[in-house]
Amino acid sequence: MNHEIDLSQYKIRTDLAVEAIEQVDDKTKIQKKSYEQDHIKVTTIQLDEKNATSIGKKPGNYITIEFQDISDYQNRENVKKVVVKQLQELLQICNIKEQDRGLIIGLGNKKSTPDALGPLTIEQILITNHLFILDTPKDGFRPVCALTPGVMGETGMETSDIIYSVIQTVKPNFVIAVDALASQAISRVNKTIQMSNTGIHPGSGIGNSRKEISQETLGIPVIAIGVPTVVDAVTVVSDTIQYLHKFYAFQKKFANSPMHKMIYNGQVNYLKKEVETNETEKKELFGILGNFNEEETKALIYEVLTPIGYNLMVTPKEIDFVMKNLSDVIGNAINQALHKKVTHL
Amino acid sequence: MNHEIDLSQYKIRTDLAVEAIEQVDDKTKIQKKSYEQDHIKVTTIQLDEKNATSIGKKPGNYITIEFQDISDYQNRENVKKVVVKQLQELLQICNIKEQDRGLIIGLGNKKSTPDALGPLTIEQILITNHLFILDTPKDGFRPVCALTPGVMGETGMETSDIIYSVIQTVKPNFVIAVDALASQAISRVNKTIQMSNTGIHPGSGIGNSRKEISQETLGIPVIAIGVPTVVDAVTVVSDTIQYLHKFYAFQKKFANSPMHKMIYNGQVNYLKKEVETNETEKKELFGILGNFNEEETKALIYEVLTPIGYNLMVTPKEIDFVMKNLSDVIGNAINQALHKKVTHL
Amino acid sequence: MNHEIDLSQYKIRTDLAVEAIEQVDDKTKIQKKSYEQDHIKVTTIQLDEKNATSIGKKPGNYITIEFQDISDYQNRENVKKVVVKQLQELLQICNIKEQDRGLIIGLGNKKSTPDALGPLTIEQILITNHLFILDTPKDGFRPVCALTPGVMGETGMETSDIIYSVIQTVKPNFVIAVDALASQAISRVNKTIQMSNTGIHPGSGIGNSRKEISQETLGIPVIAIGVPTVVDAVTVVSDTIQYLHKFYAFQKKFANSPMHKMIYNGQVNYLKKEVETNETEKKELFGILGNFNEEETKALIYEVLTPIGYNLMVTPKEIDFVMKNLSDVIGNAINQALHKKVTHL
Amino acid sequence: MNHEIDLSQYKIRTDLAVEAIEQVDDKTKIQKKSYEQDHIKVTTIQLDEKNATSIGKKPGNYITIEFQDISDYQNRENVKKVVVKQLQELLQICNIKEQDRGLIIGLGNKKSTPDALGPLTIEQILITNHLFILDTPKDGFRPVCALTPGVMGETGMETSDIIYSVIQTVKPNFVIAVDALASQAISRVNKTIQMSNTGIHPGSGIGNSRKEISQETLGIPVIAIGVPTVVDAVTVVSDTIQYLHKFYAFQKKFANSPMHKMIYNGQVNYLKKEVETNETEKKELFGILGNFNEEETKALIYEVLTPIGYNLMVTPKEIDFVMKNLSDVIGNAINQALHKKVTHL
Fold first, then answer.
1. Is C123 part of a structural domain of the chain?
2. Residue B105's closest chain A neighbor by CA?
3. What does pTM read for this prediction?
């Protein structure tokens, strides 16, 4: 094997700020806070111009909400509560007023389940804008309208063109855009909601007509809400190699303790235990493969899977049910965060 | 009963030109041609400024295609063939060139079956516009894009605002808009396709912001394709009263002829027989009710049904299957009329 | 016109007991009670063998719940409450015990909106039977399973054959079957729920293999829940003729009173006022048509509309939204009536 | 790491006969033939009692059809043609006569896209059985009925119970059951159709009531048609490790040849080149990991991923479109194989 792998072939690109900053060398300069509540972890990152540039992200506020299985009703309600709270804080940071008109945009393809988060969320949104034209506004509600622009294959048009022109006609005071993302970690698929005030880049950008939808280009706050719903095979393999290393170190330390065996019987979540891993061990376990860091490993696997057509983007088998639950959580959280009178979780 | 019925309460309004001109006194001045082929009747009407005003329609070309049951495969293919031909003629009348970019708009509510003709048709449309951005155009195809703007209850926005703004961004050379209509005759429900080059007035027009989408307002041809899919209870009753009168006259003339009885056994389509009806007979049959002309009769039934909440807009029970067939016919006819290379019916 | 109309040509057949008993001459012998609550009218009829035979119905208990628009949330909840209560009473009458296993059957065609009430209701049913096989049963729940047998056009099989064979395998202690019905009155379409313990006759009964699903044939209680969702054009016309007569009598009595004009301005619901109508008036108003009673009128309209193909079965334009609400009401009411622990309306 | 892995923890179980026989030591005794046509590979395996037992399969005929991307129209038509031919041969092997009545069963959950192959296929099936009850049979057609039994979570009943009871009532002469499968190889996901005459074991088999649906239990031929639509993460990783080894060997042999570099530029499908791999190389490349054979590697990865909850069953992102194409191919192939008169591909 030729060891001079061209890493640029496999650009580590991620939609998630929490993943991006893991690649930064000096993390001390990044403002990051987190807390946990009902087994839900919330991380807020504030990127200034300099930090943002260094990780290829836009400056602004990023909020990441990590949770476990939301097919459970109680857990789903807990996540909804956290999303409402964080979204309200973000609305405040963006200086959005109580009566400001909002446009909610559901990005993605409604006919492709893993990409349908946006359109499915729009179906949950309480539409009120037209009532404000007809009647005197009711207390506790604000004008909200919604757009499902579709994807280029359905419309033949640049998605950003559609959004841009509708915004210029409807003149909302702010935008919230919901979209499905790709993840760089198995562990985050369908288990992370990211919110930010840094705008969106919808669609494919064919022909260079791609327009950013953001505060800079439109002069109004653009909040993005995203959930990673797919992961590529490269990531599945690369993550498993990391886990295998941790598992190996863990087993070496504990596996022969009779007490341990008695208690755990092989079913222990070793990721939650602090066990040091080291490079010698890695080479022992993986041979030449052990010489590569994570980025190089991914680049190698990419090089292996791509020419034979197996670097699939994959999604869990249960995606239909997951999308139903996620769009319920996000749609209802938006309704609650935007209208004072909507209080039922 | 107070015989002074205020007819303005029940404005006879129809989306179909063939229905509108039936109310005109001097029909000789209206340019109207028709032909029949494979049991499909095609009527073309050309309205000049003056004639158009007199019947409350816009001047321009109206083509009406009347057919029977299209759940039959062969009949469906025949109708498709006629729609292709007529649409091609209309494109020519509008001076639309072979390479002109078209925007197809599917009006209506995809969640309400009788109103879903537009959105369902869009699902059949061959989208090519984005391929023209990417590649060199292929011979025999033109750039086509599509929009499903939704209804105000879903979006909170004026439908005409959405359309208007997208047109201004995408800058098509012409528009084709597909919509479900209301009919003034049971006999036309799901059995008539009307095409015209006179533009559309989408949406509810709340707050006076309603915009006409037409050659006048946009400077490009706007072709409308509509099918009546609903009818109100007033029309069902009023039509039946007319049929009852014809049935009565028919029976009086033929019913006692033993030959007739032997042959038809009550199952004759008396509408296809020319039998004269007269006013005396009508009063004999219907009493006071027989004194009213069709417009007055409708106004009366409207007055009777409205206060008790029974002037329903109704649609045949089989509407799901009918919509599937109609959107197949119209969508594929548009594809064929717009692209030389699409020849499969 | 030949006045000797053969009434057998148009058999007045109705799925609703409240409609059927209106045709009985001596109503005093029929046990009938009714009450009203939150603008919902509940009528319970108990038919013995003799009364049942006279109106072509099966003996047993019939409960009719009549309500207004359930697109309103509060009204929907009120109706749900009444359905739960009446269904619980019916379960008691049928001697169904707290732990008895129930099979819920959703009759009809899920691809045809006005016929999809059964399949849509099944989607709301809490399925618990398999949990009772796996685990110890939880307090407050009973084993419930569900079947959507489809229609003959989808399966090629007699629907009653499918149901019969599944019942013999699963051996439930009772059956609840939900179906869409045809109505003999505009006023009842989508506004009446009928429940009875008299079984069902599913499907078309082609080839005489039709099997009744009832206590008699299976030895277990079979509860039927039905909602009229369609009406034929004959009924729309016939009902309107009755209303016209009442409207005429009402106008004659009140229309010239200045007070009346001032107050009602033509929008009065004259059906709620007691105004006598008489035969002379009817003939004056309708001429020869006025000589017919309701049954004869329907027979005549049937004779007029059928040969020309216009005796459509129709449904209101809003049927998609209505089906969503009705299946929500019935599905959740079944869940609550069957499981003690399900208390949320 | 404890090297004594308990392999029974990770039972290598596969639905595909072609995968199962790869695990057999002496393959010479198995009757296996294959041919290729239009880039479609067809393998037929005949398992006798003894061979079948050795690989945990049932004796009978297995036909495997392997193909590439069927989003391409022409390729889809080619696959359809092959499926028709092979299915006709299987019908002949099973001694099914031209007028025999068939029951087509669509297994799986219609609400979960990767599991919806069966229900989606049923929607394509030409239902004719009821026409044979009504009319004289038409030449060139046979009676066909169809069943979509649902899954236990929807019905609360054992799927095999539903099927069993319907078969006993309808008494078909043969059964064809369509289902989505799990694969043991990335390369086969959505790219393999297996047909066999060895029956099915539907459903979960809770409570030991699970019934096999086969010639043995029912006395009629039961043909199974399956497509692997999901794969587990263990397989993705294990397959990639194999590919990495082959890639390594391939690179060592060719990568430094300037000619090779010039021609392939890294995009060569090295799986199609015969390059020997060896054990020394494997240990050099993978260290300790290189000591394991495929089965042991899978067992290890299973042990690593399961306790942390990441052994997901995954499916490609495009699953909605793939299911549409696959159900079109299988449904129409069944129609053509069963009815002489259906000739359009």
1. yes
2. A155
3. 0.91
